[in-house]
Amino acid sequence: MLCGVGGHVPPSVVTNADLAARVDTTDEWIRTRTGITRRHVVDPGTATSDLAERAGAAALESAGAATVDAVVLATTTPDHPCPGTAPKVAERLGMSGTPAYDVNAVCSGFVYGMATATGLIAAGLADRVLLIGADAFTTLLDPEDRDTVAVFGDGAGAVVLRSGDPGEPGAVHAFDLGSDGSLADLIMVPAGGSRYPTRGTVPGAVPRAEPGAEPGAGDVWFSMQGRAVYRHAVRRMTSSSRAALLRAGWTTGDVDLLVGHQANIRILRAVADELGIPHDRACVDLDQVGNTAAASIPLALAHAASSGALREGDRVLLTAFGGGATWGSCVLTWPKT
């Protein structure tokens, strides 16, 4: 059962005009290709845990809960490669000793986290779970790469899940999850892991030629094959949505609000069209925050709830596609928040 929601974005804003002043792009080019007009970015010294803590606190307040039995953090930008960031977030929220761990499924992370959190509850390991999606994704970007700096922003969103009756508003009804490791190079930061450790990297070095080679300077930055990502994202989000709806016994006509991963307005509209869901029933907030990766869906939920676009009992479809490649969908009814 979903019983609370909250979000947080850092205060610093970068507009399309700001980007046009430092890289080869224009406001029109960004808006027509992505639908984004501005994004929030972390200041130096602000980390994913800082964003996650604030969103988590907002979700706990929304749920009227001081503590939970577990904390799950969906992120691709942990504070450190080791250890995970969730225990630190739990400790800062006053829950030292509470089980806490990270989930990394990139932009599908929140949906995967929903499945993980509901599984903890179904298994009797927790009565309440705080699920946070948080990413400081701009820390992975080459500041000179117009194709990525135009798309991504930073932020965090969170929900509180509790045990309950399937007939109650807030009930989580069904999931569909999937992955395809052959598509790993579509969305990737090549260096920094065990395959290409960054130790010994020389700025300006020639990029790696084969496995085991030293990473080049560019390999430490995020890369994305935009056209291929678009094609796979639309196909997988559409098929996954249909599978989750079928498991819940719903049709696309039953969906009051489609909340897709906020990657690109064209992807969101294409998925809605494929599913036969009118655009006015597809949530869009990427124009103000950009693609916030694992924070994308919970931030969109928080925005829809605060704006009145979500009402108690509304049937909601969540769907996402991310690096890995991963994808997933979830259907739920909206609670009184």
Automatic annotation (TrEMBL):
Protein name (database record): Beta-ketoacyl-[acyl-carrier-protein] synthase III
Every Beta-ketoacyl-[acyl-carrier-protein] synthase III C-terminal domain range: 247-334
Catalytic activity: malonyl-[ACP] + acetyl-CoA + H(+) = 3-oxobutanoyl-[ACP] + CO2 + CoA
Domain called Beta-ketoacyl-[acyl-carrier-protein] synthase III N-terminal: residue spans: 101-181
Domain comment (free text): The last Arg residue of the ACP-binding site is essential for the weak association between ACP/AcpP and FabH.
Region of interest (ACP-binding), ranges: 262-266
Classification via CDD domains: KAS_III (cd00830)
Family: Belongs to the thiolase-like superfamily. FabH family.
Pathways per UniProt: Lipid metabolism; fatty acid biosynthesis
Localization (cell): Cytoplasm
EC number of this enzyme: 2.3.1.180
EC category name: transferase
Pfam families per the UniProt record, alphabetical: ACP_syn_III (PF08545), ACP_syn_III_C (PF08541)
Chain's role: Catalyzes the condensation reaction of fatty acid synthesis by the addition to an acyl acceptor of two carbons from malonyl-ACP. Catalyzes the first condensation reaction which initiates fatty acid synthesis and may therefore play a role in governing the total rate of fatty acid production. Possesses both acetoacetyl-ACP synthase and acetyl transacylase activities. Its substrate specificity determines the biosynthesis of branched-chain and/or straight-chain of fatty acids.
Active site: C107, H261, N291
The entry's keywords: Acyltransferase, Cytoplasm, Fatty acid biosynthesis, Fatty acid metabolism, Lipid biosynthesis, Lipid metabolism, Multifunctional enzyme, Transferase
One Gene Ontology MF term: beta-ketoacyl-acyl-carrier-protein synthase III activity
Gene3D superfamilies: 3.40.47.10
Subunit text: Homodimer.
Transport in keyword set: no
